[in-house]
Sequence to fold (286 residues):
Amino acid sequence: MITVAYDVPLSIVRYALFVAILGKTSSIAMTDLYLVFGPLLDAIPIICFFSLFWCRSHVRSKSAERYGDVVTLLQTWTWVVVAIMVVYAFRHWRFTWNRISARQRPYYQDLLDSELPPVSIIVPMHNEAAVAKKLLDSLVDSNYPRELLDVIPVDDQSGDATPALVYEYAQQYSFIQPIYNLQGERGKAAALNRALSLAKNEIVLVFDADYTPGRDLVRELAMAFIDPEVGAVMGRVVPRNNAVNLLTRLLSLERSGGYQVDQQARYNLDLFRSTAAPSAASAGRS
Fold:
């Protein structure tokens, strides 16, 4: 109910305004507008709720007296929603102020270290022939030393050309060692467990088959494990079709604001105390 009463209407207003202004602007500009206008738009529904409550509390009628208990309940619920909204707004303002004015904490990938750790890369696949080639080509073109790579594509009983594609790459590149699940339990979890049992290295990266990692992404994810207290890392997802239509722009804005404001501020303030949810690009210790 709180999500319906607050997050959805606020998101619609915020994103509609941004998209109308931005058009086909880059995601960097989207982030700037998120920083500037986000806190202002957070205040709009708060003011509206307080205004509605004030107006209702000053209206006296026979119907209000007849349904006094119901009105009291609704007013109480309104106060609860407003309180949560205020807390959320102050949270967003705090994060925004941190991103605008505070000292930004460096990432691990900003460090230079000649001793890169060996990594295993697991890619679960099921009928991924249409997208797997881009991923495998990206891993082949990665600037991470090949002698430190152990790529494990897991073909999970595919009915298309995925097995043949994986086999072709395995014949060309020795660091690609696929697993073929011809029978038995299916699914991503089972594929990951099967590959983890064969992974050679402590640091394990997991990519979705439709993900296209950049040339330096493997290094950026692996460098975080220089800190022995780091147990898992989540990579950033950047959609290819940001400017196709209104929906893709909304989703791009959501991601840009989430990564560049909320996540970075949480990182600056050392608020990450638990493992991030798995994404299309993630890494962890085995």
